[in-house]
Sequence to fold (519 residues):
Amino acid sequence: MTTYSTNEFKSGLKIMLDADPCAIIENEFVKPGKGQAFNRVKIRNLKTGRVVERTFKSGDSVEGADVIDVEMQYLYSDGEFWYFMSPETYEQLGADKTAVGDAAKWLKEQALCLVTLWNGVPLSVTAPVHVVLKVTDTDPGVRGDTSGGGGKPATLETGAVVRVPLFINIGDSLKVNTQTGEYIARAKE
Amino acid sequence: MPAPRNKNASGREDAAAPRARLAAIRQRAALLAETRAFFGGRGYLEVETPVLARAGVPDAQLAQFALSDPLLGTLYLQTSPEYAMKRLIMAGSGSIFQITKAFRQGESGRFHNPEFTLVEWYGLGYDHRRLIAEACALIAQLVVSLEAPARIVTYREAFQDALDIDPIDAPTDDLRAVARGRLPAAQELALDDRDEILDLLMSHAVAPGFPVEALTVVTDYPSSQAALARLNAQGLADRFEIYRGPLELANGFHEAARAEEYASRFASEAAKRRERALPSIDQDQRLLAALAEGGLPDCAGCALGFDRVLMLAMGATHIDEVLAFPIAQA
Fold:
């Protein structure tokens, strides 16, 4: 297993902490005058998403975490697992509910997602930033109102609910930002 | 906090271009000139000493770059010009100052670059009190935004104000308990060593409370952290550090004078190195030999981190912003 010295700490480095895989967000080297140096580190637990602060003595070593991000195509879900396939190796993997998390409501077949693997097992799934999804339910559209003012909720084919302008109708395809959950524009099919 | 990326005129990243903006490069030149004028006006002689030397510094907290020469053997890049400057003083130089590069392995971060610029000076006949006044005057001249006067507190008072504990007399167990109670992020640290606990508390809980508008000077260090400072009648070190907010800018001593003090402190650092399985360092026999001839004349010395002063003058948040080519681009 790889180990990293605090000298190698930098944002993005994946390490093991309390038996969980973590990513370093911020690393600050502090050294009082002639004394002992420390690394004050902000770390995100990749399983829980929680951010913790931890202080290391400079020169200490920690175990690296075998965490990689791979691009995979979403295939389908059986309700328990969400299945993804590598477009390069055609290898298929199932990600459980915890790993898929909020990404589930944006996933449409064939979407290319970023799947984070820990020791080869999906740890988290990031949906594409922009997706195009069909409206399956919303109040009837107000023709001609393109002001963008006001708005109404619309349910999309994947189950996500977004706020849309009044002129949107059932059956329209919408471009949506999955990170903010916001409507961007009507998409041409 | 990541430094902003280096961009050339077309907005693309460019590893060849200087990291510092031209304004910072000009400001560096202006502050260097001002520093020289400051010391020149006070009767200091500007000197140069070797950056590359046969002997190193035994300090267990410093990692030196060591080079190997086929004829000369191991050579060290200096961590500070202290020993050579003291040899000049013993040879009768009078008060001297130097602006030089120093090198410390493994020190990299928002306020550290492995290669950095030090202003180091020794006032003959000075004690640390007089040197504190002079150092604060220099910093105030270089960083005009600082409010005067500097606040001078003892190491003990600083800990009592921030943590309500006496860092000199409290049992190590009590200090450890305060560290565990105040710093959840440090729970996993062993904290066996008293000075390590003090360093942890100083850097994580005491210094972060220092004001950013003015300088804070900490004096009267525990004897275990005397380095090469004299011990006073209370058994504390006549050593000081100057902070701006939590950032240390300068470190100074009323210098120890006797050869035996140097030899015993070198020996204790060498013992710490052995304990921690750190590489041993060739001691400066020339310094010890010169000291044996009658010791160091009464003087006080100070080292000021010039790049940090420039950062403050520029309002920079990362040392890379004031370096033409920080280590990643060097």
Summary: The first helix of chain B runs from residue 22 to 40.
